[in-house]
Amino acid sequence: MNTFLNLTVYGLSDGAILALAALGFVLIYKATGVINFAQGELLLIGAYTLYAAFVVFRLPMGVAVIIGVVFAILLGLVIERLILRPLVGENAISVIMVTIGLAALLRAVVQMIFGTRPVPQPALLPRTPIELLPGTSVPANRLLVILIAAIVLTAFTMFFRRSRHGIAMRAVADDQQAALTMGISVRRIFAMAWALAALSALVGGILLGDVTEVSGRLASFGLFVFPVVILGGLDSVPGTIVGGLTIGLTYQYVSGYGDPGLAQIAPYLLLLAILLVRPYGLFGETRIERV
Amino acid sequence: MQKQRWAVAIAAATTLALTGCAPDSATTGGESDGPIKIGIIADLTGATGDVGTPYNEGMLGYIDWINAEGGIDGREIDATSKDYAYDVPTAERLYKEYINDGAVAIQGWGTGDSEALMNKVAADELPFMSASYAEVLTDPAEAPYNFVVAPTYSDQMRVALNWISEDAGGQAEVAMFHNDSPFGLAPLADGQSWISDQGLDLNMKPYPMPAGSANYVGLLSQAKQQGAKYIMIQNVSSPAAQVAKDIEAQGLDMKIVCLNWCADEQFVDTAGPASEGHVLVQPFAPITADMEGHQVIEEYLTEKGSSLADEGLHYAQGWYTMHIMAEGIKAALEEGDDLSGAAIREALETMGAIDTGGVVGAGEVEFSEDSHRGSTSTGIYVAKGGEMEPLETGVTPE
Amino acid sequence: MAATATGIFHRSYQRELSLRHTKAEYFRLALVLAAMVVVPYMVDNYWLSIVNTILIAVIGAVGLNILVGFTGQISLGQGGFLAVGAFTSALLYQRADLPAPLSIACAVVVTAGAGALFGLPALRLKGLYLAIATLASQEIIVFIARRWSFLRDGSAPMSVDRLHIGGFEITRELFEWQWYWILLTCAVLSVLAARNLFRSGLGRSFMAVRDQDIAASAMGVNVTRAKVTAFAVSSGFVGFAGALSAHYTETVTWESFTLEVSILYLAMIIVGGLGSIAGSVYGAFFMMLIPVFLNELLHAVGDTVPFLLSRLPAIENAVFGLVIIIFLLSEPRGLDRIWQRMKDYIRFWPFRY
Fold this sequence. Notes:
Chain A is mainly α and about 290 residues long. Chain A has helices at about 1-30, 40-55, 60-85, 90-115, 140-160, 165-175, 175-180, 185-210, 225-230, 235-255, 265-275, and strands spanning about 130-135, 135-140. Chain B starts with a helix and ends with a strand.
């Protein structure tokens, strides 16, 4: 029971970060149709931005976070404007390739400035062990990660449900032509999608960097976004959350109860199994194609 | 139609005829008076780039230093160093480039490329040293041109197992966390046979560490179920530091025993206070030991505006690995032979002990015709207060 | 709009189907053939080895283009299929002592079978979902290659003895030279086979599936058969490339078949031109030569600007990413289209279009 609870907490915390990363991916895909291979690198940049502001420039935490937010939004806007906008309407594979090139560029820029070794960052969230049940203690930072991610994800859900811009984004995701006729600026929505994706990646990256380390390895976390997206479908934030948590838990349980090496491909096996049964993901809607 | 067929037939015949005449192949081998060419294959941006970079810089630092001192018997070392980012096909391409340029010796890096190039360097007769301490590279029957300067992973594991047996006072459960790859598995079989051969009362179980993991709590809970009190780690520093942090977060009573690739300052720095009390098996002396061999490096670095403390022990590791090769080249030159790979190999095998000022193993590295294992002696350290403090030095598997 | 030469009148269907129509096209073909024959005499061993690697990449790129460019199925599993081909051929050649041509042929068949197997789920998956499924297959195959001790020689990667066919054996001195002719033949045959595939009904059915698979099935194209066959044929080519690489590099290690390799091949066909066999060839040359030239350039420049030298590897990666981005922004249809535009410019001159 202790082990189970332990593994569950860690699985949920990793899963929460995954959900944040996947949220950005889903935003971009739904609004613009672009499969973003640079999501992991956005996590990386988010973590390093905070490191630069907080540790290198010694700004207070609040200011550092605001700088991080502004930088992330700007980065998203710049990427969308300079790199993705010219490729609207092109072959899907070309767009994938451009995001792959972008990923390589972002990774290289981080390497150029900060080097390849992990950078020393003091713990942002407290690490004190908290005893959940007698005998099982988990560090506070893992629980806080779940909490913070939950708050951010709820905020996003509210944004999509209630605010004008959120509803506009959902309209564009549903049917671009119809949204255009309703007077929604699709261009602005594209830009917003990328900005919000960078923002959620910022939060995810900061949290991930805090519980593990701030180094180039953060980018490879981004690969797990794909199984999450398959599981949760691309059509709802709650779906993404469920997907993220499930993958996080799967990974943790396999490494805790089975062959730990399998944990790495367990998400992929799971997603293959799901795709065999439900080709549009677990919660996805069947797309109707017209010829 | 007929014309086409004839055209094709003539073209085919011409091509076949041409394949018969081959051009002269490029001649290799060192000239008798020019600079000594050495090819270096380094991982600067790949998976192990964080330790590959200081290692490579140490090597280049040594070359710069020795060229300033007049080179080897008056001849400068002309080294080309390129990044292969732990991509084995790139390593192979770089190797071919270096052969083409007339290199007489190669410095490699990882187990992947060292084993992949093992047969090629033997066929091309180029001595090859690297930072891979896999046991297979020490056997001249399997790898006649590979030289391993430090104790192999298997030797390190034997020493670690001995230490654990002593520390536990008899019976102990050991969990071996390893990189999920052949590099990680390299010492396992030898470790298991050591346990049974020496009659140690230890039970060792391997657990592969999945890549891209944000925590190792799963493995730790399995280790806890096993009742393991010792976690041996065959992996690089970052994952090992994560294990240390997880052990602290969980409040587990387990001691990490790191083999050389996580037994460095980077592990101690990244894990921070979580590194306290864990044991590090490291054949290369840490900077704080301030060996005689460190002084010359420190002088060189101070001139350049840096210091050994900034660079870390992997810098010294690269420095002395290059030094050992340079000594072999020097001995070959002194024999009066033409500088060729075969001559360097013979020199390395017959020249006796090479002094490394106490940095590598017990200080001296020696090869022979039967063994390309330079040293079996390693040091055991413990992380205390953010530093590596020696527990035992000069330990050999006995 | 592509220009076609005027004044070409075909008097038989056979002439119309031929691969080259005009004197200019034949002339360019002759130039290429001459270059292929002359190259090994002009370059040294190192560059010849690079050309050899590129020739293997051409075969792989052609295979991937058949699947991605001609049939419209996104695949990230290239590395995995290369691994299947390489390991199969190596195992049969080393452990079962099969002669090399037979082991390579078996590797092609086995990889084609594996491709067909992965093609079955592809019938139901589209777009992003297919891409992710192939990513999953890539990761799983690499995992197996990394863990299964049967695929290793103890703890060392599997090594493959130098190629020998009957009495003929590759020698050390003429290694690159002999391999060049073998690989050149294989590459030329592969390119010809692929070109011919798309002159046939089967190839056209692939393209129909790419353009509008629902309309194609309404027209009577058996979409299932087309997709599965596309996967099989493409994987056959890729398995061929993998098997050749196993014999050429003489080691088979899982590290040569990672996701980065899949991405590199995708880059090749996209930069070269999707849906074009010539594009695959251009793309293979371009993407394989970039790191080599970059290396040379930065080393030449690095001596004068020491700061650059210390950040060299990061700069190489950055330039790599930039090249891809700039290329795609300026001409998303690849090198093939650029070459076409150059030809058109000359054809249309002095008119604009």
